Amino acid sequence: MLAAVLSLGGIGLVAAVSLGVAAKKFAVEVDPRELAILEVLPGANCGACGAPGCSGYAKGVAEGKMAPNLCSPGGDETTEAIADILGIEAVTLDPQVAVVSCQGDNRKATSKYHYLGLQDCNAAQKLADGPKECPGGCLGLGSCERACPFGAIEMTSENLAVINRDKCTGCEKCVAACPRQVIRMTPRRATTHVLCNSHDKGAQIRKYCQIGCIGCHICKKTVPEAYVIEDFLAGVNYEHIENAAEAIDKCPTKCIRDFCSGYPEGSSFTPSRDDAA
Amino acid sequence: MNLKSFAGGLHPPDSKHYSAGKAIERCPLPDELIIPAAQHIGAPAEICVAVGDQVKKGQQLAAAKGFVSVPVHASSSGEVIAVEPRLHPLGRPLPAVVIKPDGKDQWDTSLTGADPEQLEVAALKEMIRDAGIVGMGGATFPTHVKLSPPGEKQIDTLILNGVECEPFLTADHRLMLEESERIIDGIKILRKVLNLETAIIGIEANKPDAIEHLTTACVAHNIQVQPLKVQYPQGAEKQLIDACTGRQVPSGGLPMDCGVVVQNVGTCAAVSDAVRLGRPLVERIATVTGPGVVEPKNLLVAIGTPLQHLLDQCGGLTGDPAKIIMGGPMMGQTQLSLEVPAIRGTSGLLIFREEDLSLKNAGPCIRCGRCISVCPIHLQPTTIAAYARLDMVDEAKQQNALDCIECGCCTYICPAALPLVQSIRHIKGGIMAKRRKI
Fold this sequence. Notes:
Chain A is α+β, with helices and mostly antiparallel strands.
């Protein structure tokens, strides 16, 4: 009995002492600020900042290699909290949200062929540049929905991706997942957008989509400062968004949408309270 | 009969009765020949003619760019009326030369042949390359590259692929019956280029007339004819080598790693023309068939002939086409339109109506394992496809996804109609992209 206690106790003692010595001798120094920053980050590990995850970003910021305002899921609050930890002044960015620039769902846009393959936009895009006749339209197979770490994207029953403005944190994962660059990053403050991604001429677009931009210039004539038209495709000039909504009723194909008044047809999302205010 | 084979595979209804008995017919020239610059694996050729140029049959339209590339030639005499992107069998517009044939079909007189016995091996290879010869089975890999194995590889066997295991297609079958002298001449040239004696023609046992005909014809030339079991994909390179010689091509390797070069019988015939007559590859035999075609035929087609023109020669359509396939039904490419031209790899044109197809939406995998039992490479298609759906690139690579030959057996047999081959091809793209990044 005594022998057992002594021998086990002895082993324990030796192990404890060596562990204690090793802990002191081989200790890895961690910048306490790095741990503090990791505390205030949202922990989504989305990669929007450019680092592989939140701990990588915390390390980068603590070492002064990365700017403290790159965390889009965390937004201004996180930027300020990080600035506090580092003892510097916060410079906040213009917060961004992702918008799907297309409303051409299965009812409104035509297909080149009947696709029965893998339900993945990137796989479908490899087959004759995707089943949709429109070269820029949403393929509707949900690759962005699966890529979104925040559950902010839904696919309507007619296969159109719609992004919830309340849930979107601007991490850009969906932008990377989309093979057709339909998803664009836009300033959070802007609620009016041209939802079309095809640079084809009007006559061409009318053949395959009822709700595409035909480049008719009416929006630009109505509110000249709020719109730009490039290669037969209109876009909102996000520097001057004040009166952009005035052109909505004038648009002949109804491809301009104000997200205050609702999401595209078929979406279950309701307008954001922040947008309405 | 001693029928050799490989392990795995399956036997879909071969449906060759539509066209097997039809002799090769020359297809008249269309109003417009659309000749794409990209008709082979490797770098697309560079177009070297301009609108308004008068060209002769066999004249070069586009020059080879790099070693793994071949030139493209005019398939009839006439005027170049456009050089612009046209819808390509790959499904998107790609650069092409459009020729309005003048009806004279005059060969370029500067093209002269030579006696292969008198030529050096290097000169033969050059002639084969300049004639734009590619694998005529459908893969269109430049032939001169296959004929130039690195010095350390000992090649001792030439296998000729007359298997034609794809259902419906009968182009090679007819060629073997009607043009055996050209094939045998091509084999002799290839034997000289590769400096070897053993040549084996592999033919599936569902073509007994071709086996008999070639066996008789080959006796005097020391060429062996090997009847093979009717089993898809008997004509896939690695499966054919296994069946004919019992050798296995290592994972990630090429046939030359086990001392073999494989060439299609159509390629042999083209090699013979290229050397003896100096004529480039400007026409091929294509089977126009399927339940959607009024009168299925084997046509000798000028490269660049629009598919619609081929159909017109066969009496047109029996109903609304629901699926148009260029090549065979297992590995062929589905087409968007009948405006696309026949190219060097066009071994067939298949038309199916809606009632001939079973179009099902994919269901969940029921773990029946049929895809695994038919896979000729002995992969686990369902596992790789699951990784593909989840974009798990490294795991798919662990499962040897890159060895998949995309023969389509797994997709064919899958009771849940899962797009297995497409999924595997998708993840193969992912693996290659990742490899390039590192």
